[in-house]
Each structure stands twice: as structure tokens, then as C-alpha cells.
Design a protein that fits this description.
Blueprint: E1 5-14, E2 17-27, E3 32-36, H1 43-51, E4 57-62, H2 70-74, E5 77-80, H3 92-97, H4 101-104, H5 112-124, H6 140-153, E6 158-162, H7 170-187, E7 190-194, H8 198-203, E8 207-212, E9 215-220, H9 222-225, H10 228-235, E10 239-242, E11 249-252, H11 255-259
Parallel strand pairs: 3-7, 3-8, 5-6, 6-7
Antiparallel strand pairs: 1-2, 1-4, 8-9, 10-11
Helix pairs in contact: 5-6
């Protein structure tokens, strides 16, 4: 079976810095892969390469197609950036409708179906009734959900999420991730996400890839990848791991607990 996303020998150099080096990664249709790693590891750059937003060497194929044109990928890949660019004064409803442009073209008017899809995703993200507000007037968490709504309105087969829970409280973190999980099961949506929260990365998703020093250092099921040794080596963090039926829970340890002999 051809993977929905396949990355082979990916190299990216930005401003003279070799950010990604020989990255290999694949995601099957309907699979959720979380990419974790320390700051500066190249996680966002990897997502931007998948979108065709940065020049790269190597091969990236989305659903078997390796066309590098951004327009060709727009109908296949939706993206939730960590820091979105939002036109000043734009209404929430109009912003979400931007997600429909790949299906109708930049200059074509939105259809009744476009408006129906936008209304549905706003409702599912607890933004019903927000359509006439400007995006800038929203709180940080509300704005993040509006950005997610635009991406989901695109109805692409591959969804890229760059720290999708940024600025969200705990309840809305769960709401957003549960919605993504429900949609991928309903539509066989392929999800590739970057997450700082290792416990969330373990609970939402099928597989984890650790990106460190520009390379994929480890990949596999959460329980196999999220070990005390790996977290110490790649994050420089001291933790203990609590086994839980829904996935490992990562608990930071303090110097005092280490002195008291607490074990991971």
C-alpha cells in the first residue's frame, strides 16, 4: 500500500544552516503521527517542507504524488500553523471560508455548500455564533480554534498541525484533539502533528517520531519511544513515566525527589 505521506532523504538548508538531514518518515492513510523533539530540532521546518513552503532536497510524496507546486498540494494538505497570519479586520466566517478556496479558486464566489461546511466546523469547534466577529477580537484560544476551523473546512485528506493546542485551556485542548481524532476515523484523515506536551503526544496518535539534531532519531508506538532514557537523551529532562491504559504519562522529577531516591 502506498503511504499517504512519504518523506525520503529530506534535506533542508535555511540561511546557511542545515536544518534537516536525511529525514525519512511515512504515514499511512488514517494514521496519526506525532513529531516531538527539543526546540530547534526542525519540526516546523519539516511541516513547511511537506507543504512546499521551503526548498528541499530529497523526495516528498503526498498520496503518491511528488508534485512540488503549492497549488497541487492545497487540495490534499491542510495546515494549522503555530503562528497564523490573519488579514486585519477579517470576520471569522470569511476566514474559515478561506479553507474552501482550493475547491473553487481564488476569485470564485463561495457556494451554499461552502457556507454549510464552514458553519459545521465552527459549530464542532464551539464557535457557533462567532461568524460576524473579527478574528482579531477573539481570545488566544478562540483564535486558535478559528484557525483549526479554516483547516478543517478545507476537507483535505492530510492534516498538518503545528502545536495545535497552543493558547488553549485544558478543556479545549481535549476538544480539539478529540475532534481531530473523530474526523480521522470518520474520513480516514491522515494527521501529522508537532506537540510539546509529551503526554498528549502519547494519548493522541498511533506513532511518535523524535526529531533531534535534524534527523529522525526514534520512531514507533508511544510506549516504546517515550522512555526515561530517550527523554533524558533528546530533551535533557529528568522524568518518571506512569503507565496508564490510555498511554504513558510523563511526570517531571525535581532535584529534591531525585535526592530522596524516587525512581522513574
Amino acid at each position: 500500500m502506498t503511504p499517504a505521506v512519504r518523506v525520503q532523504h529530506l534535506d533542508v538548508t535555511l540561511d546557511g544552516t542545515h536544518v534537516l538531514r536525511g529525514v525519512d518518515l511515512a504515514a499511512s492513510t488514517g494514521e496519526w503521527v506525532n513529531i516531538i523533539g527539543p526546540n530547534g530540532a526542525g519540526k516546523t521546518t519539516l511541516l513547511r517542507a511537506l507543504l512546499g513552503l521551503v526548498a528541499f532536497d530529497g523526495e516528498i510524496a503526498i498520496e503518491g504524488l511528488s508534485d512540488r507546486r503549492r497549488s497541487a498540494r492545497a487540495r490534499k494538505v491542510a495546515y494549522v500553523p503555530q503562528t497564523p497570519v490573519i488579514p486585519p479586520g477579517m470576520r471569522v466566517a470569511d476566514y474559515v471560508l478561506l479553507g474552501r478556496i482550493p475547491h473553487r479558486g481564488v476569485f470564485a464566489a463561495e457556494t451554499a455548500n461552502d457556507r454549510r461546511i464552514a458553519a459545521e466546523v465552527l459549530a464542532r469547534l464551539d464557535l457557533e455564533g462567532f461568524g460576524d466577529r473579527s478574528v482579531q477580537s477573539l481570545s488566544g484560544g478562540e483564535r486558535q480554534r478559528a484557525v483549526m476551523a479554516r483547516a478543517l473546512a478545507q476537507q483535505a485528506d492530510v492534516l498538518l498541525l503545528d502545536e495545535p493546542t497552543t493558547a488553549l485551556d485544558l478543556g479545549h485542548q481535549q476538544d480539539v484533539l478529540e475532534l481531530v481524532d473523530a474526523l480521522r476515523r470518520e474520513r480516514s484523515l491522515t494527521v501529522i502533528a508537532t506537540l510539546h506536551d509529551l503526554t498528549l503526544a502519547a494519548r493522541y496518535g498511533d506513532r511518535i517520531a523524535i526529531l533531534a539534531r535534524g534527523r529522525v532519531a526514534e520512531t514507533g508506538p508511544p510506549a516504546e519511544v517515550l522512555t526515561v532514557q530517550n527523554i533524558s537523551e533528546y530533551f535533557g529532562a529528568s522524568v518518571r513515566i506512569v503507565d496508564d491504559p490510555e498511554g504513558p504519562v510523563i511526570v517531571p522529577t525535581t532535584a529534591a525527589s531525585a535526592q530522596n531516591g524516587d525512581q522513574p
